[in-house]
Amino acid sequence: MNKFDKLTGIAAPMPLINIDTDMIIPKQFLKTIKRSGLGVNLFDEMRYDDDRNEIPDFVLNKPQYREAQIIVAGDNFGCGSSREHAPWAIADFGITCVIAPSYADIFYNNCFKNGILPIALPQEQIDVLMKDAEKGANARMTIDLEAQTVTTSDGEVFNFEVDAFKKHCLMNGLDDIGLTMEKVASIDTFEAAAAQSRPWV
Amino acid sequence: MSPKTLYDKIWDAHLAHEADDGTSLLYIDRHLVHEVTSPQAFEGLRMTGRTVRAPDKTIAVPDHNVPTTLDRANAATMTEDSRIQVEALDKNAKDFGIHYYPVSDVRQGIVHIVGPEQGWTLPGMTVVCGDSHTATHGAFGALAHGIGTSEVEHVLATQTLIQKKSKNMKVEITGKLAPGVTAKDITLSVIGVTGTAGGTGYVIEYCGEAIRDLSMEGRMTVCNMAIEGGARAGLIAPDEKTYEYCMGRPHAPKGAQWEAAMEWWKTLYSDDDAAWDKVITLKGEDIAPVVTWGTSPEDVLPITANVPAASDFTGGKIGAAQRSLDYMGLTAGTPLSEVEIDTVFIGSCTNGRIEDLRAAAAILKGKKKKDGIRAMVVPGSGLVRAQAEEEGLADIFIDAGFEWRLAGCSMCLAMNPDQLAPGERCAATSNRNFEGRQGRGGRTHLMSPAMAAAAAITGKLTDVREMM
């Protein structure tokens, strides 16, 4: 997995609440058996018209945001389907950090498996970051995972919370399965006991 | 012993490892797999030389992509990419030796309908699937939730999931439901109250007389949409109805094992003095038949209401509501019962079970859909379809002018050819009304099967109580 430690980049403002995973990657792109190549279809139905031409008003089509590495968005980002294609598409586009007041549970977990840092901050701070993002390509935010800070282009600093284990895995690009395999003895013990106590399972 | 909720009890019974910071390995009893969110996980196993730890606890069925037309045995009815995904599941099931219900098997259907039907889902289990509507299985008093593909791979390889415990939320529905009000109206009404993020960070336990009165099918409908309220899972304590449903199913325990299981299952309830982090109470009598008007499942109103205005809302919802109204082509103040529809979809893991088809057929019996309306019924499994044919429900649907389809997810998410055209408006029994969910530009109104049937007859959103 890709590591995430520090990032200075352009933030795309998406002041919408309830951005769902169908918006992030519509179902017609779930038919792949690969993880890669979905970036071109990120936000597909908001990004292209019926003739596959870019819709100029959509934020990621605007010249100043085409190289965005951060999204600043409204409440409940990533709600809906569990599709990991959503973080795959986001990462494939080149975005490795999302900042929003809150996230849907499954999407939030999926981000950490794909080198993406989802940051939750109070609405008042999101409002400041949204304004900063709206300044465009000259305004770069800095995310420091080690220090757990977001710094605006004006130097204003916000602290964020993140689970210590998730942070450790993300900073070191650790493979969850490998980590769990180290605890295989615990799983073996549990499984043997469960086979006795709940043999019907 | 300190009092526990049902969730606490199931969690404790599945804890394989707990680190000092609370990061836990939760043992998984049942892993359900479908063709869309699993190919990358199996590919991951192959690339790392890993295998499936517990193939006997892993059950696969293709459902999202499969055509539901009668000619689907012909491979040409599938697009190439869909066919490749289904064939990949065929191969993965065979290579890794997991239980499998292929498209040709009468038991094939939507994974969340097949699991309970075959007795894979039982009280007190942990159940996961790479699909957010795994919450459905909570109806049995199981801890069931959706996971991403990386987690699918994790469960395949280790039979565990890395988790931190959620908080406990109680949703109580007191009293009786009025005639014409169903499990779907309960679950939508709860989301209408909590909002789509109201359950984030929680596992919900649904309780109260109105929940107890529901059949297992109804309880599955309620738990299915826990995810639409943002909750990790929704569950309902098992009772006699649960045991009766499970008994005799192909993979349910038998004989002495059944007795042993029952003994444990009867301990699966929240203790009287258990602590709740959040409690919501609704009166059953206050719940009306509801429909959604917008593009979020929280956009719920009684069918007797009018389309709201964006200015009725506050904060970020003002812009979201305006965007929804524009997308849905609705004008504030219009009575919902005057909104004309083009299509009716009855099916999905929310409402594709036998009771749902009975409820719709009861409204449609002896009647016809309005001319020009496209209407389809997609049973949740091949066995639901067979039972509906045996009960004469299929004839009622066909006589009413509905298409009688084969089992699959179909127009709930429109990954197969069953899709809405841009601007087409649908009365749907599914679970999501997101922009583009049922097809680009398609407009979805969520409701119960009986309400969808009523809409098919009149050609507009309709209060089913007028037809009872």
Please specify the SSE layout and strand pairing.
The complex is a heterodimer of chains A (201) and B (468).
Chain A: E1 6-14, H1 21-24, H2 44-47, E2 70-73, H3 85-93, E3 97-100, H4 105-112, E4 117-120, H5 123-133, E5 140-144, E6 149-151, E7 157-159, H6 164-172, H7 176-181, H8 184-197
Parallel strand pairs in A: 1-2, 2-3, 3-4
Antiparallel strand pairs in A: 1-5, 5-6, 6-7
Chain B: H1 6-13, E1 15-18, E2 24-27, E3 30-33, H2 39-48, E4 58-60, H3 80-96, E5 99-100, H4 111-117, E6 126-129, E7 143-146, H5 149-158, E8 160-163, E9 167-174, H6 183-194, E10 202-207, H7 209-212, H8 216-224, E11 233-235, H9 240-246, H10 255-265, E12 278-283, E13 290-292, E14 300-302, H11 316-328, E15 343-347, H12 348-351, H13 354-364, E16 374-378, H14 382-390, H15 393-399, E17 403-404, E18 425-428, E19 443-446, H16 449-458
Helix pairs in contact in B: 2-5, 6-8, 13-15, 13-16
